[in-house]
Each structure stands twice: as structure tokens, then as C-alpha cells.
Specification:
Oligomer: single chain
Distance between the termini: 40 Å
Radius of gyration: 27 Å
Number of helices: 5
Strand order of the largest sheet: 2-1-3
């Protein structure tokens, strides 16, 4: 890794631990403790130089905008992890079958119910069908499908509340370390 006084650094796996460009201020072994710190602290680090030699780095201050960006990334991660959790934990309904409870499936299910209600309001027949995971669609009565929809919503609601709580915690953080310390889990 070559390191410059302006805090730029470049890693080139084909030329490790050498100044292959010929203009580096310092050469730091990629797998050294110092090299690992530079990579993990980037882009916010300060160089510690003694007698012209780079001896260490420390975490530098970040701007409010940078912290806000880190927070938004962590919030996006919490939402993605919730989505993944929902996709991998289908709901076991009282009929003994599993039903997908992803955001997309919930939207489709509620759209199906809304379409039925609109059709009924104008006297048009609208068949209600839905499927358990790994099964084909089957007929449902309105009340049965509504009960399934409400059961799924009740199953998902605590997880959504947890994500919202995590999001509030993240937004209240004042340092990167505080953001990093927030653990995201839906189990």
C-alpha cells in the first residue's frame, strides 16, 4: 500500500508493499496493523508522523453530512435485514400451511382483498384465490382471506416495530462508533 500526505492510499495486489508509482510518501505493508487501520478508518483518519515516518493513524472527525450518510446506510441495512428475515420466516397459519409474509406478498394480498371489495360494491363477481408457500392458488372466502391477511399483519407488526425502534436509535446517534454499536437482529 502506498500512502500520501493528503491521506490518499492505493493498494495494488500485483505490487504489494512497494512504491510501484514512484511518488509515495510512505509504503505500508498491506497486511500490517497500520495498513489494516488505514483501510478500516478510511476516509476519516489522521496521520501520525514522527521524524518524517508514518507511525500510526487515528480516527479523524467526520462531518455531520458524513455521519448522516453512515446513519442512512445503517437504516437501509436494518430494512434490508427485516426484508430478508420476513422472506425466510413464512407465517404458519391456523390451517397448518405456511404463507409468505414479505412486503410484496402482503401488498398483493391486500390488493386482492381491496379488488374484491370494489367489485362487490358494483355487483361484479371477483374470485378470491391465494396460495401457501410452495403451493398453487386455491379459492378462499372473503372472511377466510381477510383473517389470513390480518393474521399475517399481526405476525409482521412486532418485527416492523423493532425495525422502527432500531431506526430511531440510529438517528439519535452522535458518533460513528455509536452507530456501529447498534446490533440489528430480528430473531
Amino acid at each position: 500500500m502506498v500512502v500520501y500526505k493528503n491521506k490518499w492510499f492505493i493498494i495494488n495486489m500485483e505490487h504489494p508493499d512497494t512504491d510501484w508509482l514512484g511518488d509515495a510518501d510512505w509504503v505500508v505493508p498491506d497486511d500490517s496493523e497500520l495498513g489494516k487501520k488505514i483501510v478500516s478508518y478510511a476516509p476519516n483518519f489522521d496521520l501520525i508522523v514522527k521524524n518524517g515516518k508514518l507511525i500510526d493513524v487515528k480516527k479523524g472527525k467526520i462531518t455531520k453530512e458524513e455521519l448522516d450518510g453512515i446513519k442512512e446506510d445503517k437504516i437501509a441495512q436494518s430494512k434490508k435485514m427485516l426484508s430478508e428475515w420476513l422472506a425466510s420466516h413464512p407465517y404458519l397459519y391456523s390451517d397448518g400451511k405456511y404463507y409468505s409474509c414479505t412486503e410484496e406478498k402482503q401488498s398483493l394480498l391486500n390488493g386482492n382483498l381491496a379488488s374484491y371489495e370494489r367489485a362487490k360494491a358494483i355487483g361484479v363477481e371477483y374470485p378470491l384465490k391465494w396460495n401457501a408457500t410452495t403451493a398453487e392458488c386455491t379459492d378462499f372466502s372473503y372472511n377466510d382471506l381477510l383473517a389470513l391477511s390480518l393474521s399475517i399483519a399481526a405476525y409482521v407488526a412486532p418485527k416492523v416495530s423493532k425495525q422502527q425502534s432500531i431506526e430511531v436509535q440510529i438517528r439519535n446517534c452522535e458518533t460513528v462508533e455509536a452507530v456501529d454499536a447498534i446490533e440489528i437482529s430480528y430473531d
